[in-house]
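Sequence in, structure out. Go.
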Amino acid sequence: MARIAYCTTIRDELLNIDVLPDFECEVVVSVERDGYIAIDAVYRDGKSLAFGTEFTKSVAADVANHAEIDLNTPGNFYREQALAKEAA
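Output:
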């Protein structure tokens, strides 16, 4: 497992607005044998968002979904970063 810096925008598609633009955090990732990268946790300021309020847990779920897409897209900056950390 590796912990990498990650930034994404949480958007409300119904309202068509950015709720949390440029949300900076860290994600804990695992690289599986087939190269798939799974998101194991989301942290902000050293705290796991899984232990927060329902809103915070919802943000963590959205971040994890965004990160999973980004980290499994060939050539993506975050994917390369995760693979490099995992190999170190």
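Check: The beta strands are 2-12, 17-31, 37-44, 47-48. Residues 6 and 26 are 5 Å apart (CA to CA).
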